[in-house]
Amino acid sequence: MKKVDITICRAQDGTFSAYCNDHPALFGMGGTAAKAKEEPEETLRLTKEDGRERAIIYPDWLDEDFEFVTHWEVRTMLEYYSGIITPTALGHLAGIHPKQLWSYLHGYTKPRKKQVLKIETALHRLGKELMNTVF
Asked: DSSP strand E in 1-135: where?
């Protein structure tokens, strides 16, 4: 199955954009992250339906099954979930000082790859713990 990686980021005007590094023709915009993500998905669906004859760009992998994998740009993710996951809470989970996370959130600094990995690992660990919670 072909994976299509979509990255979600937020523009200065407050809209969201979704883009695919591997396939530059796949992109979208919207007032919400979900709306932005729908556009590249819809583009691929329509391209697959219309077939090779009508499409300007028709990747060969469209004949196979594919799935979308969403990635967040760090600042966008921190901003999007700021009402749920505070810099203090995420800092505790990831072992990163909350002031540093605040700086990422407000765009004063950009996290190094090592810091991004710490954030990602902490959020995945939290997600697994929440999924295994029994009530």
From this structure: 2-10, 16-19, 27-30, 66-72
Q: Report residue 96 as tokens.
A: 């990163």
Q: Tell me, what's the pLDDT at 3?
A: 85
Sorted by sequence, the CB contacts under 8 Å of residue 42 that are 6+ apart come out as 28
What pLDDT does 65 receive? 79
What domains does the chain contain, in order, with CATH numbers? 2-72 (3.30.2390), 74-131 (1.10.260)
For the chain, the average pLDDT equals 88
Both ends of the chain: CA-CA distance in Å?
35
* φ and ψ of 29, to 5 deg: -140, 155
